[in-house]
Amino acid sequence: MEYGRKEMAFSLKMDYLKVQVVSASQMVIEEMFLKKRSLHPLQVVGTEGSFGALLMIAVVLPVMYFIPGSDVNNSYENSLDAIYQIFNEPRLLVFCLLYLLSIAFYNYFGLAVTKSLTAVHRTLIDACRTILVWVVDLLIFYAFDKDFGEPFDKTYGLLQ
């Protein structure tokens, strides 16, 4: 079945809406666990991370391996090859561990905000983080080096 432009745009909007509903539901459930059940943010982060890792290892990655694709051994995602590459390149291993650590801290502090305040506050702070990254990009471009950062787009500037 082929999609036209309008159908594709509508489909993408619906997918985006679904993602927002799932994300909002997750935050509400996290707030319930943190406040009504008085769980510590580390406990919630650890539980989410453990179940996420288990789901990826036991279900998602094996399924992706057996879907035909252009990766090694003609699979869509060859996780065994990825693990081999990570453990045979020290810099890649360091970056993977740093990424894992940064996500753990990000999730912990997000849940700490949710426990202290509310999920609404967490969402607003997250939106401000995006704005801060954009402002820093502009600052780097105009104040330091035009090879880095991002110029202000006069057409879509404030929509960025």
TrEMBL record:
It comes from the Eukaryota. GO terms for cellular component: membrane. Keywords: Membrane, Transmembrane, Transmembrane helix. The chain crosses the membrane at residues 42-67, 92-111, 123-144. This is Transmembrane protein c2orf18-like. It comes from Mytilus galloprovincialis.
